[in-house]
Automatic annotation (TrEMBL):
<protein>
    <submittedName>
        <fullName>Uncharacterized protein</fullName>
    </submittedName>
</protein>
<feature type="compositionally biased region" description="Low complexity">
    <location>
        <begin position="231"/>
        <end position="240"/>
    </location>
</feature>
<feature type="compositionally biased region" description="Low complexity">
    <location>
        <begin position="190"/>
        <end position="199"/>
    </location>
</feature>
<feature type="region of interest" description="Disordered">
    <location>
        <begin position="176"/>
        <end position="240"/>
    </location>
</feature>
Length: 240
């Protein structure tokens, strides 16, 4: 016998988007892509871009509560490679780093302006893997497709931070009036030029032992390495 009375409501039809500007508490899950990150904790964690040297964090977001509970959307965050700024750093990583800091501030209720030693300590992670499972307040947008063959998609518009009017209610799971983004379609990516034949260019230098091509393109500073065998502390949002 099966008692189906406690079954959850049906999921929304496939392809139905979360309304533009929806506020919700979301949980982030990292989907490993098989490419190693810059720390042992991130072995096999990243995903390689198919069009550039960028390395990305492939993330799934699940709405925790409210009318869109259990709905999901997906987004990549560049953590190395791709376009560089005037300092030779990855533009994508700088954008992602700001988002990751905001996630931690939102998850832990940290004032973004708090630069105390205690707050700074909570913003230090041993690897990107520690962001797996973080839950925070978010505003969700609809990103229009850049070309007709693709569908519009839900994406993070911004992370809602302590001090913003919607923050406390969103973290309590309350329903808030949406604030639409009304984003314009992104420009379609240009087809990359075909590479020159291998025999027409000098051989590439062999990287130093343990190095990777994107190591100096804006990857995060890992600080002093931990001694072998030392266990990395868990992130604050999991330890309470």
């Amino acid at each position: 016998m099966y008692d189906l009375n406690d079954a959850q409501p049906q999921m929304a039809p496939l392809g139905e988007l979360i309304p533009d500007g929806t506020f919700a508490k979301v949980k982030m899950t990292i989907r490993p892509g098989g490419v190693n990150g810059s720390t042992p904790a991130d072995a096999g964690l990243l995903k390689a871009s198919q069009t550039s040297d960028a390395r990305m964090l492939d993330c799934e977001f699940t709405i925790v509560s409210g009318p869109y509970a259990r709905r999901k959307f997906w987004q990549n965050f560049t953590v190395a490679g791709g376009k560089l700024d005037e300092k030779g750093q990855s533009k994508g990583w700088n954008i992602s780093k700001s988002a990751f800091r905001a996630m931690i501030d939102s998850a832990l209720g940290l004032d973004p302006k708090d630069e105390s030693a205690a707050a700074k300590g909570k913003r230090v992670i041993q690897g990107l893997k520690q962001l797996d499972g973080i839950a925070f307040a978010a505003r969700i947008m609809i990103e229009p497709a850049s070309t007709p063959q693709y569908r519009d998609q839900n994406k993070l518009a911004n992370i809602v931070l302590p001090g913003e009017p919607q923050y406390a209610a969103v973290m309590r799971g309350e329903t808030m009036q949406p604030d639409p983004v009304n984003a314009k379609p992104r420009k379609a990516a240009e087809t990359p030029a075909a590479p020159a034949p291998a025999w027409g260019a000098p051989p590439a230098p062999t990287p130093a032992s343990g190095d990777v091509p994107w190591a100096n393109q804006g990857t995060p500073n890992q600080g002093t390495p931990k001694p072998p065998g030392a266990a990395a502390p868990g992130p604050a949002w999991l330890n309470g």
